[in-house]
């Protein structure tokens, strides 16, 4: 068979007991025919080769740390085919190449384990997002990023990979083999079983948290935010936000900003950022303070990593930094103008108030601005293809999160509807590209506009997945994989 660990899951699937998968928020879900956890790459290859003539739908998942349907498996019964969720958690090989600070490791490594393992060898990766809960390959190949005008997506750290196609054959991908096409593969090009990345020696950062009272005029506020983006090399700007006023039943702007910025330092006397990290609701951020730590612990939240797992509607949009001041105003004003639509979702607040439940106010809206250096990865949201000649190649991002008081699917679906309205309104004007693994709703026409290499990428996708086993309906519609439409008809 294909190893011992998956035997129980396969047995249950044979009895008609499907495997239900959830994302980290438990608001995105699918029910596959079964769940398979290979012992090693050979075990995985045997499973994939067995299912190729059966045309089984295969979906490798990491830790489900996504807000949208990108990583969703195909529901059992949605097609005439079986559907399996794959976990690579046992693929934990790790090889440190000390001569050039490169690291080769398997698809089962999560950041929370990988970063300490590199630390033991005096190494770190160049940059991270704000959390360590993700699987590294899952995060990197869906466009996860941190912040910093000299920092690119995590995917650019990848120097090579070994990826398994739908027939179970391994392809070695490097800079001479379309690496820019594969770095952000979003699960559609195959099963990435191993990557090699460029690491660097350990270093320290100083992190400064500063609360600033911003101008009440939104136009002047975003001019000020753009100035902050120019001033700091690596910064995260929290705010402005919108607070729900239960008396007036309207959103009220809050123009205070919390600016977090990082600087290189030679001070190594204390490592205290990881003890007092405010990001991702792991402590209060609206205060001034300074801390020092190893670079990875100064940037990313340490375990438990996420201190808020409630529903939220969230998108993150990238656009050239030159558009920040104008785009920021238009986004904020449009979100503010939707206050009347939020009112019907407020009734639960009185119940929660009576129970003295600590929570977000229903429909508070948080806004975060970050900065990312552009790259040449084909499906990168910060790809530089098609930028105006005078563009700097630096991108700003706007992350909008609608925060409910409690988990309610009707409210969550409304948030998704609201989030879907921003790109039709502002996408072409500001050259907006959405984050692959957050809420996004564009179609293949818009996709081909923001990803000029899309047709070339689709040719590779067909070679790696000739029978449409690695796709789902979201991918087919968003990427324009028309040859796979018949699978779901």
Automatic annotation (TrEMBL):
State the GO CC annotations.
Answer: membrane; mitochondrion
| Pathway membership | Cofactor biosynthesis; D-erythroascorbate biosynthesis; dehydro-D-arabinono-1,4-lactone from D-arabinose: step 2/2
The FAD-binding PCMH-type domain extends over 28-202
| One Pfam short name | FAD_binding_4
Record InterPro entries: ALO_C, FAD-bd_PCMH, FAD-bd_PCMH-like_sf, FAD-bd_PCMH_sub1, FAD-bd_PCMH_sub2, FAD_lactone_oxidase-like, Oxid_FAD_bind_N
What is a single molecular function from GO for this protein?
D-arabinono-1,4-lactone oxidase activity
SUPFAM superfamilies (alphabetical):
FAD-binding/transporter-associated domain-like
- Which controlled-vocabulary keywords does the entry list? Oxidoreductase, Signal
From which residue to which does the signal peptide run?
A: 1-18
Is-annotated flag, keyword Oxidoreductase?
A: yes
Gene3D superfamilies according to UniProt? 3.30.465.10, 3.30.70.2520, Uridine Diphospho-n-acetylenolpyruvylglucosamine Reductase, domain 2
EC assignment:
1.1.3.37
Can you name this protein? D-arabinono-1,4-lactone oxidase
Q: Which organism is it from?
A: Talaromyces rugulosus
């Amino acid at each position: 068979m294909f190893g011992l660990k998956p035997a129980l899951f396969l047995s249950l699937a044979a009895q008609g007991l499907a495997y239900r998968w959830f994302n980290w928020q438990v608001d995105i879900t699918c029910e596959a025919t079964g769940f398979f956890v290979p012992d090693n790459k050979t075990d995985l290859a045997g499973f994939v080769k067995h299912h190729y003539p059966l045309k089984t739908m295969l979906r490798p998942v990491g830790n489900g740390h996504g807000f949208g349907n990108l990583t969703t498996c195909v529901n059992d019964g949605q097609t005439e085919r079986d559907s399996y969720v794959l976990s690579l958690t046992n693929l934990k090989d790790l090889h440190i190449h000390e001569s050039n600070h490169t690291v080769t490791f398997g698809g089962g490594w999560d950041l929370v384990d990988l970063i300490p393992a590199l630390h033991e060898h005096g190494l770190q990766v160049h940059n991270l997002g704000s959390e360590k809960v993700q699987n590294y390959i899952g995060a990197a190949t869906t466009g996860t990023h941190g912040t910093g005008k000299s920092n690119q997506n995590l995917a650019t750290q990848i120097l090579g990979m070994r990826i398994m196609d739908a027939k179970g054959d391994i392809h070695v991908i490097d800079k001479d083999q379309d690496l820019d096409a594969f770095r952000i593969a979003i699960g559609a090009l195959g099963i990435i079983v191993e990557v090699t990345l460029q690491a660097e020696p350990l270093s320290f950062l100083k992190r400064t948290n500063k609360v600033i009272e911003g101008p009440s005029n939104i136009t002047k506020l975003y001019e000020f935010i753009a100035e902050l983006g120019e001033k700091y090399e690596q910064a995260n700007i929290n705010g402005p936000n919108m607070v729900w006023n239960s008396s007036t039943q309207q959103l009220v702007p809050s123009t205070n900003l919390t600016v977090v910025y990082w600087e290189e330092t030679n001070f190594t006397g204390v490592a205290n950022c990881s003890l007092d990290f405010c990001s991702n609701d792991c402590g209060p951020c609206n205060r001034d303070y300074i801390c020092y730590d190893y670079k990875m612990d100064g940037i990313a939240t340490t375990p438990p990593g996420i201190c808020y797992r409630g529903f939220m509607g969230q998108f993150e949009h990238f656009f050239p930094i030159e558009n920040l001041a104008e785009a920021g105003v238009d986004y904020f004003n449009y979100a503010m103008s939707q206050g009347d639509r939020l009112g019907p979702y407020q009734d639960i607040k009185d119940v929660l108030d009576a129970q003295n439940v600590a929570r977000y106010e229903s429909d508070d809206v948080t806004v975060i601005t970050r900065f990312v250096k552009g790259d040449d990865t084909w499906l990168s949201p910060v790809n530089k293809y098609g930028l105006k000649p005078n563009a700097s190649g630096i991108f700003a991002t706007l992350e909008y999160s609608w925060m409910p008081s409690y988990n309610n699917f009707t409210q969550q679906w409304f948030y998704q509807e609201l989030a879907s309205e921003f790109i039709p309104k502002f996408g072409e004007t500001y050259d907006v590209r959405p984050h692959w693994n957050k809420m996004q709703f564009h179609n293949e026409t818009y996709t081909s506009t923001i990803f000029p290499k899309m047709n070339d990428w689709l040719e590779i996708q067909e070679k790696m997945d000739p029978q449409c086993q690695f796709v789902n309906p979201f991918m087919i519609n968003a990427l324009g994989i028309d040859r796979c439409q018949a699978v779901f008809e």
